[in-house]
């Protein structure tokens, strides 16, 4: 059997090129994952930072009184940005769900008066937040094995959520299971 040295060298070069391509793909995926985690932590810091917690408290108090405060734009805008980043894959969808679904779902539902009013001016307002809400409901359905009606907070649970939000202050963070999940609903 006669082995051609040029063929062996060519096959070795192809194998080396394939290994290099795989290494580049792995590095790109790691870089994207790291960037996504960094985005998530920045969003978490923004959400729980003093300026936003103060706005969240104002918005919650106003929503409880059926009043639309100027600060609602900042709260809805936060979720609009999060929805955009998830849709564009700058943040992993399950990571966003894990960090923010306990706030996004009730804020979407509690803010319908403002969302509807804004959409009368421009139907494109809050489309990424709506997309995020639908995505989070889908993840909830899949992970919890419950019906949509079981997942959505009741009116009383929304009120509990807003009362929690209105009590926010420095050093109070909004992550983890919220009262609206615990109130009369399975874990």
Can you tell me about this structure?
With 187 residues, the protein is an all-alpha fold. Helices cover 75% and strands 0% of the residues. The protein contains nine helices and no strands. Helix 4 crosses helix 6. The chain is elongated.
What are the main properties of this structure?
187 residues, mainly alpha, 9 helices, elongated, disordered C terminus
Architecture blueprint of SSEs:
Layout: H1 5-48, H2 50-64, H3 72-87, H4 93-110, H5 112-121, H6 127-144, H7 148-151, H8 155-166, H9 179-182
Helix pairs in contact: 2-8, 3-4, 3-6, 4-6
Short synopsis of the structure:
The chain is an all-alpha fold. The chain has helices spanning 5-48, 50-64, 72-87, 93-110, 112-121, 127-144, 148-151, 155-166, 179-182.
Instruction: Give, in order, the helices and strands.
Output: HHHHHHHHH
Total number of distinct structural domains: 1
* Unreliable segments of 5+ consecutive residues: 182-187
Tally of DSSP helical segments: 9
Oligomer: single chain
Please bin the fraction of helical residues: over 70%
Number of E-state strands? 0
Given the helix and strand composition, which structural class is it?
mainly alpha
End-to-end separation in angstroms reads: 69 Å
Using the CA coordinates, give the radius of gyration: 23 Å
What overall form do the CA principal axes indicate?
Answer: elongated
Strand content: under 5%
Largest sheet: none
For the residues shown, what is the average pLDDT?
A: 87
């Amino acid at each position: 059997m006669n082995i051609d040295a040029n063929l062996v060298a060519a096959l070795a070069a192809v194998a080396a090129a394939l290994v290099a391509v795989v290494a580049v793909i792995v590095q790109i995926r790691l870089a994207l994952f790291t960037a996504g985690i960094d985005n998530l932590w920045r969003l978490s810091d923004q959400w729980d930072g003093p300026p936003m917690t103060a706005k969240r408290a104002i918005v919650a108090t106003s929503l409880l009184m059926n009043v639309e405060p100027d600060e609602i734009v900042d709260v809805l805008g936060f979720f609009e940005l999060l929805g955009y980043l998830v849709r564009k894959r700058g943040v992993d969808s399950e990571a966003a769900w894990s960090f923010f679904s306990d706030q996004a779902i009730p804020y979407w539902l509690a803010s319908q008066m403002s969302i509807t009013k804004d959409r009368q001016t421009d139907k494109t307002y809050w489309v990424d937040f709506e997309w995020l809400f639908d995505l989070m409901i889908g993840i909830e359905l899949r992970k919890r094995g419950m019906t949509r009606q079981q997942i959505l907070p009741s009116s009383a649970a929304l009120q509990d959520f807003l009362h929690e939000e209105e009590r926010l202050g420095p050093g109070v963070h909004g992550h983890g299971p919220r009262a609206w999940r615990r109130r009369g609903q399975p874990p």
